[in-house]
């Protein structure tokens, strides 16, 4: 999530390359790696930082907002496991910048992809979702879910985390977004995603009700994140959203402003010619209490799904303003406080009370779980569904790809056919990440894509009817 509310630095100096505020005595700009002391490091003639392994020039990163306080970036050192990719230096600071030439070192978490193959699917020849056999004939490994996470174009690291896991009767996914104003947000999101997904799978495999498993897993994740704090002033924190499929039903749980969506394979005709909003209806009481049920223990009502919609409601200032009728959705999103969250996981959070909801789709579709790096550009379910259609364009209201960068809009996804999540969920996940990057990529971007087919009615069900 963006950290527009973080305290601004008080120094007056600015990096001559990207304009980021810097402090007197610093050797390198923390934003772009530009050398500030005028010295010429070995391997970087003229004091220039040289090419970046991620292909981004300092100019391309201008204007970014770093997602942590300046104090956390001060002179912390860690021994380098490998030498600098550019100059061979071994002094790499904790944020991944070479102290000798200023180059940010590439890390595995910059871009992550996850695949969950069908239980009866054998791996293809080249280990990808769509392999090629020795005779040149394409081999297809059927995937039941996939996810992707990317650090985006503006931030020096990926503070999102994703976990996907198969349980005995479906898929469980968790996406977490580190709160940039906290310490070690990347550790918080990783702990939340891994702990939440493992707890979900264990409880679902034991036969526990999905709603209860979802609530318990969120609380377990909250405990794991809170345990990371070394002091009250250094409490890593993050958002949390989970989604579970079982027996044709979907159960989602969340704390914060990471979201889950249902993208129907076929939309129902609009009632009376008015398609209305596609976001989930919510009451202000839900935003305040944090739990769908008053006592947090009763069975969660199952809601029928006929068309695409947002399944979660943000724990945010903007959502409260809209629920109160004080601002329209557009006005709230344009406000400086738009991304101030009102609930999160962390030792500095108040009592964590996860929201939990269960839905039963009337037809096939896709369960999408994502961080705000995607939905900031495409907030409506119809926009997200449009990105995966054969046009590759949002249905309405979403950002046109390339708009934020001034570039020409990108062609449709993969330049032609639709990115069908059922046929290839990994391609769908990659498409959504690419569209967010094309639209500006100002934040970390994380998506989990889970195709869902409705459960067939049992014989006993037919007899009762």
Index terms:
6-stranded antiparallel β-sheet, 465 residues, 20% strand, disordered C terminus, 6-stranded mixed β-sheet, alpha+beta, 9 helices
Distinct helical segment count? 9
The radius of gyration over CA amounts to: 23 Å
**Class from secondary-structure proportions:** alpha+beta
Read across the widest sheet, the strand sequence of neighbours is: 3-6-18-17-12-14
Q: Tell me the span between the first and last alpha carbons.
A: 48 Å
Q: Please provide the count of β strands.
A: 18
How would you describe the shape?
Answer: globular
Low-confidence stretches: 2-12, 40-80, 124-139, 274-296, 396-416, 458-465
Task: Tell me what portion of residues adopts beta-strand conformation.
Answer: 15-25%
What helical percentage do the residues reach? 10-25%
Mean pLDDT: 75
Summarize the helix and strand pattern as letters.
EEEEEEEEHHEEEEHEEHHEEEHHHEH
How would a textbook summarize the main sheet?
Answer: 6 strands, antiparallel
Short description:
Helices cover 19% and strands 20% of the residues. With 465 residues, it is of the alpha+beta class.
């Amino acid at each position: 999530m963006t950290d527009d509310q973080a305290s601004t630095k008080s120094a007056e100096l600015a990096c001559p390359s990207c304009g980021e505020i810097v402090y007197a005595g610093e050797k390198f700009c923390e934003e772009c790696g530009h050398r500030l002391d005028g010295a010429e490091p070995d391997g970087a003639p003229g004091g220039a930082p040289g090419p970046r392994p991620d292909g981004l020039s300092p100019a391309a990163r201008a204007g970014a907002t770093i997602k942590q306080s300046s104090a956390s970036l001060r002179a912390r050192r860690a021994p380098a496991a490998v030498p600098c990719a550019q100059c061979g230096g071994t002094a790499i600071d904790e944020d991944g910048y070479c102290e000798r030439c200023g180059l940010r070192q590439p890390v595995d978490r910059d871009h992550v992809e996850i695949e969950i193959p069908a239980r009866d699917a054998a791996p293809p020849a080249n280990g990808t979702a769509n392999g090629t056999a020795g005779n040149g004939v394409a081999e297809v490994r059927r995937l039941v879910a996939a996810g992707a996470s990317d650090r985006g174009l503006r931030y020096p690291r990926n503070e999102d985390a994703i976990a996907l896991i198969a349980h005995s009767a479906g898929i469980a996914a968790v996406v977490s977004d580190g709160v940039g104003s906290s310490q070690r947000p990347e550790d918080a999101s990783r702990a939340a995603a891994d702990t939440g997904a493992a707890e979900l799978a264990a409880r679902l495999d034991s036969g526990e009700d999905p709603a209860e498993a979802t609530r318990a897993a969120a609380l377990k994740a909250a405990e794991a994140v809170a345990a990371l704090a070394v002091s009250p002033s250094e409490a890593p924190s993050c958002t949390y959203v989970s989604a579970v499929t079982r027996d044709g039903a979907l159960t989602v749980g969340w704390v914060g402003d990471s979201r889950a969506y249902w993208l129907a394979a076929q939309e129902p005709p609009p009632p009376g010619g008015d398609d209305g909003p596609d976001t989930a209806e919510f009451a202000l009481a839900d935003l305040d209490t944090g739990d769908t049920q008053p006592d947090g223990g009763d069975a969660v009502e199952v809601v029928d799904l006929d068309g695409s919609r947002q399944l979660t409601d943000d724990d945010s200032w903007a959502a409260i303003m809209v629920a109160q009728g004080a601002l329209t959705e557009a006005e709230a999103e344009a406000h400086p406080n738009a991304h101030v969250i009102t609930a999160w996981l962390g030792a500095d959070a108040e009592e964590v009370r996860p929201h939990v909801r269960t839905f039963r789709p009337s037809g096939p579709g896709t369960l999408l779980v994502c961080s705000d790096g995607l939905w900031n550009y495409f907030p409506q379910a119809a926009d997200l569904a449009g990105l995966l259609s054969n046009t590759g364009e949002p249905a309405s209201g979403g950002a046109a790809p390339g708009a934020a960068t001034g570039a020409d809009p990108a062609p449709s996804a993969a330049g032609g056919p639709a990115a069908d999540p059922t046929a290839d969920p990994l391609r769908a996940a990659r498409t959504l990440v690419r569209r967010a990057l094309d639209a500006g990529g100002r934040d970390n971007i994380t998506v989990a894509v889970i195709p869902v087919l409705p459960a067939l009615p049992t014989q006993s069900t037919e007899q009762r009817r």
